[in-house]
Amino acid sequence: RWFMYAEDLDLCWRLAQRGWRRVLEPQVAVSHVGNASGVQAWGDLRTGRWLDATYDWYRLRHGPSQTRVLAAVNSAGVAYLLGPVLARKAAGRPLQDWQRELPRAFTHHLRALLRGGGVAGAAS
The pTM is what? Predict the structure, then answer.
């Protein structure tokens, strides 16, 4: 259903539902070089793709009401971070990559709040 960004989440969820034990192994590290796959697949739309797929998965597993709760919490958190970032931008100070993504992320969280997840185009 999802190509990147939610398939691993879904796999772990389904394994847990069937009684499988999942283990986080802290000594194992997988290096990702500059988000090469995400940029190649979606360019600047990567953050939206990731959020839409995650909300689509969450809605499938928890329903629209719980997805709205998650989206409300995420929206509030991003709004809290967005104020200082916008002030920094207005002052002409440089932004980090994650700070530049906040307005886009905020839009996706609000859309999930209004729609209860299930964003069109999230599934592949």
Answer: 0.80
Q: 66-101: per-residue pLDDT in tens?
A: 999 999 999 999 999 999 999 999 999 999 988 988
Q: Whole-angstrom Cα distance, residue 95 to residue 90? A: 11
Question: Residue 31 phi/psi, 5° resolution?
Answer: -85, 135
33 close to 40: Cβ distance less than 8 angstroms: no
Q: CB-based contacts of 47: which residues, under 8 Å, 6+ apart?
A: 101, 104, 105, 108
Place of tokens 């979606």: 42
Cβ partners under 8 Å of residue 62, min gap 6: 70
- What long-range pairs does 102-106 form, CB within 8 A, spacing at least 24? 102/78, 104/47, 104/48, 105/47, 105/51, 105/78, 106/75, 106/78, 106/79, 106/82
> What is the DSSP annotation of 29-55?
-----TTHHHHHHHGGGHHHHHHHHHH
pLDDT for residue 119: 58
